[in-house]
Amino acid sequence: MSVIVNRLYNIQSIDQWQHDRTMLHSSGIWGREPVLQYLADEVIRTGDVVVDLGAGAGYPTLQVAAMLGATGNVIGIDLSEAMIASARRHCHAGNLSFRLGDISQPLELVDEYADVVTGFMVLHNLRQAEMCRTLTEVERILKPSGRAVFLTMHPDAFESQWDLQFLSYDLSALTRYRDATDKEDIEIAGYARNISGGKNAIMTVYHSRRTVLEAVCGAGLMLAEERDLWIDRETATRMFGIGSIGRMPNTPTYWMLVLAKSAAAMNGHADTTHSCVIWDVR
Fold first, then answer.
1. Rounded to whole angstroms, how far apart are CA atoms 29 and 102?
2. Coil/strand/helix, residue 197
3. Domains recognised in the chain with CATH numbers
4. Backbone φ and ψ of 226, nearest 5°
5. What number of CA atoms fall less than 13 Å from residue 201's CA on the CB side?
6. CA nearest 263: which of 125, 175, 143, 157?
7. Kindly report the CA angle at 176 between 174 and 179, in degrees rounded to 5?
8. pLDDT digits (tens, 9 = 90+) for 192-247
9. Cα distance between residue 60 and residue 193, in whole Å
């Protein structure tokens, strides 16, 4: 994980990860914004304690802080020293703090600490074993009635033969992915352009839907809700211009997962129909 984090989120890339316009790239527009709205409408309540895993330069963490009120609290955790330093400089709120830490290792937080755990575009920067360890920590720090909400790349995203100037991936890596019998943990590097004209280096470590759900269940969590998030032509044209679109994706690009503790289902905190059963083996 540290190799990917240091490659993507460093002192040279900070300016592309911290401001309103630079955060309006593909995953921000079609992923982060819908998930933040979902958190505000469905999950976060005044006074909640939130832990944001892989907080980066703190932009989404600051948005979460505004939902909590003065009695709430949010901690952003990230492995990149450069990103944490930037978050501390630019993201200020009385209920907000940042910590340096590896989210795939034991966190310095007590059991059942958080009402809500969030992670924006972080699960697909983890290898399978790291994802399993991270979700185990999520289960440990989450309160019995809590929720964990993650935004990540959709498992079917790279099944599309799409062509977008504002979101592109290395062709040789895509070919390796499509030709592989075992696609798990394959790295696919790319770039996302933002509406300010800059571009961010990005990386997806591929995980199938089955692998993710097995990691969820293995950690003692369950899938409470999921949403497929699509790039739409109208918004893409408005944000980046018609010339930026060669071919639209015919699969979802981003994926929102809402997780709860498995034991909570038996105590009436969640719908038991969403138990740890892998229904879809795509």
1. 27
2. coil
3. 2-154+208-231+252-266 (3.40.50.150)
4. -145, 150
5. 12
6. 143
7. 105
8. 998 888 888 899 999 999 999 999 999 999 999 999 999 999 999 999 999 999 99
9. 18
